[in-house]
Design a protein that fits this description.
Helices cover 56% and strands 0% of the residues. By secondary structure, the chain is mostly helical. The protein folds into two domains: 116 residues, Orthogonal Bundle (Cytochrome Bc1 Complex, Chain D, domain 2); 77 residues, Cytochrome c-like domain (Cytochrome Bc1 Complex, Chain D, domain 2), CATH 1.10.760.
């Protein structure tokens, strides 16, 4: 364990906030250590479930959102999710509601919540009833699969899309296309700027059905 990570672990164990943004590498190391120990993983998951009572009203008890415009957290890669939580905590990501809520949570709670939600199962939409879904699948395979994966599971650096909420997907893609300060990833921006409204609608119809 490097010195920076050791300090970060000590700080979070004491329930304090680090004076620097926690690096993605440090988060990845912590998550891998927890996953590598069944006892540590079970402990973090149980603690994360308790801490997640803050999130139940919007994201659901098991990370499956109760609203279609709020993202599912279930099944996200734990490292990816922890990094996003930390970005809300230090201001790199901003949301009128989330930014304030995350800052109330102790760093250890944030870590445990990421472990908990990563182990929950996503409930995808049933079937391909929306006629746009087949077109969305074609567009996904052509444009999105290279980064998000054939099954849409993402990885430590890229979000899981499979089973995600349709209205949330639509809102996020529109924000990337518009280049808002909340959605300013250069790769996603360059892709989204080529999307027409019906392309976005098709992706939002297909991606929620991915399992």
């Amino acid at each position: 364990m490097n010195i920076r990570l050791a300090i970060a672990c000590l700080v979070t164990a004491l329930g304090l906030t680090p004076s620097w943004p926690v690096s993605a590498a440090d988060n990845a190391d912590r998550v891998r250590q927890a996953i590598g120990s069944a006892a540590d993983f079970d402990k973090a998951r149980a603690a994360g479930k308790k801490a997640a009572f803050f999130c139940v009203n919007c994201h659901g008890e098991d990370g499956n959102s109760t609203y279609d415009y709020i993202p599912n957290l279930a099944g996200q890669n734990a490292v990816y999710l922890l990094n996003q939580i930390e970005k809300f905590a230090d201001g790199r990501r901003q949301d009128e509601f989330m930014s304030g809520l995350i800052k109330v949570l102790k760093p250890e709670d944030r870590f445990n919540m990421a472990i908990y939600y990563s182990g929950q199962s996503v409930r995808p939409a049933v079937g391909n009833a929306n006629p746009l879904a087949s077109r969305g699948q074609q567009y996904y395979d052509r444009t999105c699969k290279a980064c998000h994966g054939a099954q849409g599971y993402g990885n430590e650096k890229i979000a899981r899309l499979a089973g995600q909420q349709p209205a949330y997907l639509k809102k996020a893609l529109e924000a990337y296309r518009a280049g808002t300060k909340l959605r300013n990833d250069p790769i996603m921006g360059s892709i989204a700027r080529r999307l027409k409204d019906d392309d976005i609608a098709a992706l939002a119809a297909y991606i929620p059905t991915m399992k």
